[in-house]
């Protein structure tokens, strides 16, 4: 089916891009839904033990990964919001430019969904809501009490996307030999 000179067949660039944008939207919805639950049922600092290595907590991160710049005085909220929006625009352009590259597009969609999920938090709350708390004794030399910094669905999607980008690049280099 054609519309404005573009086809919407499964392999088309528009159809493919819509698939990846839909994945990003699903990630955003899952991320925001879980954060609404955490904000609704937990006060800041509350924790529920799930296993001997995992807790559900409510934590606020005003910084970036690993609370980078968390104590910077407030300007970082808008700085990281701007970076997230710029990244989102760049990712949409990349999705449009590389429609046939499935692993690359999957990675970009994951990063896009995660970035927008965290941007929404920064705009609405002024911080990112984190709630997944993994802890192991062997992490104690690096992280206080062995607790890896709390994170959320958006952070997970960004991490999965980053790993997939690395795998995609390794595959591309390997094919080039």
Tell me what you see in this structure.
The chain has 177 residues and is an alpha+beta fold. It has one domain (14-176). The chain is built from 4 helices and 5 strands, in the order ββαββααβα. The protein has helices spanning 13-41, 75-97, 102-124, 153-176, and strands at 2-3, 6-7, 47-51, 54-61, 128-134. A 3-stranded antiparallel β-sheet has the order 3-4-5. A two-stranded antiparallel sheet has the order 1-2.
Mind describing the biggest β-sheet? Answer: 3 strands, antiparallel
Task: Report the order of strands and helices.
Answer: EEHEEHHEH
Count of discrete structural domains: 1
Q: How large is the count of helical segments? A: 4
Which runs of at least 5 residues are low in confidence (pLDDT < 50)? Answer: 1-10
Helix content: 55-70%
What overall form do the CA principal axes indicate?
globular
Mean pLDDT: 85
Strand arrangement within the widest β-sheet reads: 3-4-5
User: Ends: how far apart?
Assistant: 39 Å
Short description:
With 177 residues, this protein is of the alpha+beta class. Helix content is 56%, strand content 14%. The protein has 4 helices and 5 strands; from the N terminus they run ββαββααβα.
Which descriptors would you attach to this protein?
3-stranded antiparallel sheet, alpha+beta, globular, 56% helix, 5 strands, single chain
């Amino acid at each position: 089916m054609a519309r404005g000179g573009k086809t919407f067949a499964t392999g088309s660039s528009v159809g493919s891009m819509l698939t990846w944008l839909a994945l990003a939207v699903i990630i955003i919805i899952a991320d925001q839904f879980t954060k609404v639950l955490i904000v609704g049922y937990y006060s800041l600092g509350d924790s529920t033990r799930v296993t001997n290595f995992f807790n559900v907590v409510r934590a606020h991160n005003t910084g970036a990964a690993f609370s980078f710049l968390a104590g910077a005085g407030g300007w970082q909220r808008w700085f990281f919001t701007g970076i997230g929006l710029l990244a989102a625009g760049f990712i949409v352009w990349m999705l449009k430019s590389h429609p046939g590259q499935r692993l690359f597009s999957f990675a970009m969609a994951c990063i896009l969904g995660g970035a927008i999920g965290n941007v929404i938090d920064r705009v609405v709350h002024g911080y990112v809501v984190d709630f997944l708390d993994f802890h192991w004794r062997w992490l104690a030399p690096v992280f206080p009490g062995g607790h890896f910094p709390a994170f959320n669905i958006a952070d997970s999607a960004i991490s999965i996307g980053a790993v997939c980008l690395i795998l995609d690049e390794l595959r591309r280099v390997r094919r080039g030999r």
